[in-house]
Amino acid sequence: MDLDGVAKAFVDHYYTTFDTNRATLVGLYKEDSMLSFEGDKYKGAANITAKLTSLPFASCKHQITTVDCQPSGPAGGMLVFVSGALQVAEGEHPLKFSQMFHLMPAGPGNFYVQNDMFRLNYG
Amino acid sequence: MDLDGVAKAFVDHYYTTFDTNRATLVGLYKEDSMLSFEGDKYKGAANITAKLTSLPFASCKHQITTVDCQPSGPAGGMLVFVSGALQVAEGEHPLKFSQMFHLMPAGPGNFYVQNDMFRLNYG
Hints:
2 copies of one chain form a homodimer. By secondary structure, the first copy, chain A, is an alpha+beta fold. Chain A has 2 helices and 6 strands; from the N terminus they run αββαββββ. Chain A has helices at residues 3-21, 45-53, and strands at residues 29-37, 40-43, 61-71, 78-87, 95-105, 111-120. In chain A, strands 2-1-6-5-4-3 form a 6-stranded mixed sheet, with helices on one face.
């Protein structure tokens, strides 16, 4: 498996979905999925999606700077580590962020997000 | 197990060791450990330690801003996600960084670093 290719495809898909229709991110999470968002913790696809869709901006745009990935172990998972910038309103200064995902297999060629940790990197 | 407590203890130990005697970090890695450092990949405790000890600064000081952690799955691992600043010489401007570790059990109460990904967050 080309891990770097899978990681890049996931990252493209995740942030494009986030920026166009956040509610549909629910399909990437499962009941055992965990999100840490600026230190607050959420568990399960429904709670995670509720948090993401309640963020106080109507539209946003992620720009990705770096994507790193490594296999996470014998269970076939992969770790994806992202840095980038997030613009939450036209004309606003982009906010730098870092995010890591632990993707686990969900059937042939498919992954779901088991772990998700997000932090803004304040200047 | 108090995951947050273990994560904080690991982070304190890791960066104190990094800032005082980088070569002894070798004991935290094993042969299957992986490091991605600014996009370059290293595998195994010896190669990882060779990279860390060859970084072009004699002394450094990490300041930690945030530590997040989550369990990584049934194998008993944990994901630790760190942000902070790194000062590589007296009087220099600190560099912001993000780093993630995947810790796996290595005997009762012990963990080793299976995955390590480091990125500077350029302003």
